[in-house]
Amino acid sequence: MVIARPLVVLPTYNEASNIGEMLTRLSTVVPAAAVLVVDDGSPDGTAEVVDALAGSLPSDVHVIRRARKLGLGTAYRAGFRWGIERGHDALVQMDSDFQHDPGAVPSLLRALDGGADMVIGSRYVPGGSIPDSWPWYRRELSRWGNRYASRLLRLDVHDCTAGFRAHRASFLDRLDLQSLDTDGYGFQVQLTHRARRAGGSIVEVPIQFGERRLGESKMSGRIIAEAFVMATRTGISDRVTRRARR
Ligand SMILES: Nc1nc2c(ncn2[C@@H]2O[C@H](COP(=O)(O)OP(=O)(O)OP(=O)(O)O)[C@@H](O)[C@H]2O)c(=O)[nH]1
Ligand SMILES: [Mg+2]
């Protein structure tokens, strides 16, 4: 099952300082991949940077402009739908701030080629890593958040909050993405849960998760709380369903 028409989906909110370099790097590393930027009306002019650069790059570059900041989860759902409707056979999701190394995209696509339905660029398998500079509370939050969600939801993956992934489009199309209702890390967890329940083959490949290069983080307490509430709610609902089936 060789991947022929990959699409890289890049959600952006105020990434004008990163997006130009990101598009340039992607067009060097995976020139055959099309790129879709989903921008939420960034006041710093991110979408204009994309427009100005698009025609001069070898890759096919598109932008969806949304009126205001509507959240990462809805940006990915819109981007995936766009790609599926246009016949892309693989959908890569990654951040636009260089925490995800564009140089690792080929290794994710190779794992899809090998037969996986969903490939997770994982920080918590041998060879994967998080930045040395992360303070202890961020490490612990990431490590324990991952363990909590993975055990409760029986995900059987090491990095269920990871945002660097590649999906087989035909598989993603079966997951009823429009019914997902989370934004931040919760979206990644919910997506993994759907994929597991659908019986997909989920493969983790190691990645080195970097530091944001420029610009500001959009991570917030609300996003962490959302993921925690969703995982707990889904975990309870799974248990009730299993018990009712017995
Ligand atoms: N379209 C869109 N993109 C978003 C939104 N929120 C965040 N993003 C983008 O999603 C990616 C991840 O967001 P980050 O702020 O880097 O979140 P993070 O990586 O968890 O946090 P840091 O480690 O602090 O950078 C970046 O490319 C952001 O620009 C949003 O509401 N809409
Ligand atoms: Mg980031």
List keywords for this structure.
246 residues; 8 helices; single chain; alpha/beta; 7 strands; binds magnesium ion; binds guanosine-5'-triphosphate
Structure description:
By secondary structure, the chain is of the alpha/beta class. It is 43% helix and 15% strand. A 7-stranded mixed sheet has the order 3-2-1-4-6-5-7, sandwiched between helices. It is globular, with a radius of gyration of 17 Å. The chain starts with 5 loop residues before the first strand and ends with a helix. Residues 11-13, 15, 38-40, 69-72, 75, 95-97, 99, 212, 217-219 line the site of guanosine-5'-triphosphate. Magnesium ion is lined by residues 95, 97, 99, 212, 217.
Helical proportion, percent range: 40-55%
Strand order of the largest sheet: 3-2-1-4-6-5-7
Global morphology: globular
The averaged pLDDT comes out at 94
Total helices: the number is 8
Largest sheet: 7 strands, mixed
Quantity of strands, as a count: 7
The N- and C-terminal alpha carbons lie at a distance of 38 Å
Identify every distinct bound molecule in the structure, by name, code or SMILES: guanosine-5'-triphosphate, magnesium ion
Q: What is the radius of gyration computed over CA atoms, rounded to a whole number of angstroms? A: 17 Å
The fraction of residues in strands falls at 5-15%
Order of helices and strands: EHEHEHEHEHEHHEH
